[in-house]
Amino acid sequence: MFGTSGIRGAVGEAVTAELALDVGRAVASEGYNRVVLGRDARESGQFLGDALSAGLREGGADVVRVGVAPTPAVARAVEWFDGDAGVVITASHNPPEDNGIKLWTASGKAFGPADREAIAGRVQAESYDLARWDEIGSQSRLEGVIDRHAETLREAVSLARPLSVVVDVGNGTGGVTADALTDLGCDVRTLNAQLDGRFPGRPSEPNEETLGALMAFVAGTDADLGIAHDGDADRMMAVDERGRFVPKDALFALFARAAAGEGDRVAAPVDTSLAVDDALAAVGASVTRTPVGDVYVAERATEPDVVFGGEPSGAWIWPTETLCPDGPLAACKLVEQVTKQGSLATLVDSVDSHPIRRASIEAPDNKAVMDRIHELVLTRQAEREWTVDTLDGVRVDAGDGWFLLRASGTQPLIRVTAEARDAGRAEELAEEATALVSEAMGE
Ligand code: MG
Q: In this structure, which of 56, 135, 183, 274 has its CB flanked by the most CB atoms within 10 Å?
């Protein structure tokens, strides 16, 4: 039922009012007594929110509804409004026909595996503790969550000078970025700023393919940079002043380098580029690897010497601010960095990028094949001087490069990633990884 980013699927099929009602009942039954509930701009979010609220109240929880708001604002509002959990009705960057449910703890961190299991288990078993007739929960409506988010963003950064910024909101809930940057003195222009859960302006996922209009607009004007968010604004990607999409790994390296000092650690999933390791080594800091998924990055970011966490998909976490990936905060942090360290194009060019190879190999029983790969790697580890990490799939660090083998969770595939500082070596590592898969499959 739950993926690492919550529940997501097609409205009227996987995601229904009945499911929302049951999740509400389950959350209340788990003992959460005051729940902050918000949603993204999808119209289906109205009835899903009503159903979820009904389930929460039936289970005895008081519901604080904050309306349409960025996911990070709702996650932060759990603490602002003395809640003990938060719920966002959103399918993030998925197409408009989908919707979903993301759950947040009181600390603004996404529900982890155990919390998710508890909810899913109750829904599957239809096991709820419903309230007595005179103990049903209340529902109230609190306004101003977006203004408060904007205020928090303004306080989180200090700009050395105002910049000219273009914000592509993608018809999602990230308009708060434009508000905060305007208040900070920047000259802000927006694209796709009207809230519309049908995402008429561009697909909701911000990437090099979907941000053509932003890239052209920034290149054609005197803007210092462009910012883009996904539908619920927990993600942020950027475009430099020349109109170039900033590669995800470069953005990660820039944030990591700015956040970390001597002895600090930065949380990053096992598939993160060496560019981040290199950027951190230059300031005496290091990477701590996590399974793939921003919830695992957030979990690691609670450790005291972890000053930043990132997921190259565009989720950026500054744990002293919030454990929820906050796209508008990332936008303000990037603007701050550019005002202090020079143009974004110059900053991006200062990050070394390395050749990376990706492939998918068909493997019908991919979990069993991964077990065999693990055994094979362990038998070769000592002789090859590999460092092996099995946090998520099998990651082999060969000193001058690495490869990662992971079973796809949804398809009968094994995904291969290999990276090294030169192209020939990356190719060699990719071939070695592919050969391991063949061997494990008995070919
Ligand atoms: Mg999102």
A: 56
Task: Tell me what pLDDT residue 410 has.
Answer: 79
Question: For the ranges 11-20, 180-189, 407-416, which has the lowest average pLDDT?
Answer: 407-416
Task: For 83-104, write each residue's pLDDT tens digit.
Answer: 999 999 999 999 999 999 999 9
Q: Tell how far the Cα of 231 is from the centroid of ligand 1, in angstroms.
A: 6
Amino acid sitting at position 80? W
Q: Which residues are catalytic?
A: 92
What's the rounded mean pLDDT across residues 413-425?
Answer: 95
Report whether 300 contacts 309 (CB < 8 A): yes
Please state the separation of Cα 229 from the chain's center in Å: 11
Sign of CA dihedral 150, 155, 156, 162: positive
Q: Is the pTM of this model over 0.90?
A: yes
| 279 alpha-carbon distance from chain centroid | 21
State both tokens at 98.
Answer: 């989908």
d(CA 326, CA 334): 12
The Cα–Cα gap between 166 and 340 comes to: 19
Ligand 1 center from residue 355 Cα (angstroms):
28
Protein residues within 5 Å, CB atom, of ion ligand 1: 92, 230, 232, 234-235
pLDDT, mean over the chain: 96
Q: So what's the pLDDT on residue 2?
A: 79
Distance 359 CA to ligand 1 centre (A): 25
Of all helices (H) and strands (E), which one includes residue 136?
Answer: none
What's the token pair of residue 11? Answer: 């409205």
125, 84 Cβ separation under 8 angstroms: no
Please name the amino acid found at residue 160.
A
C-alpha distance from residue 181 to each of 16, 174, 184, 333 (Å): 37, 12, 5, 11
Task: Read off the amino acid at residue 223.
Answer: A
Mean pLDDT, rounded, for 13-26: 98
In this structure, are residues 374 and 390 in contact, taking their beta carbons and an 8 Å threshold?
A: yes
Q: Residue 71: which pLDDT band, with cuts at 50, 70 and 90?
A: very high
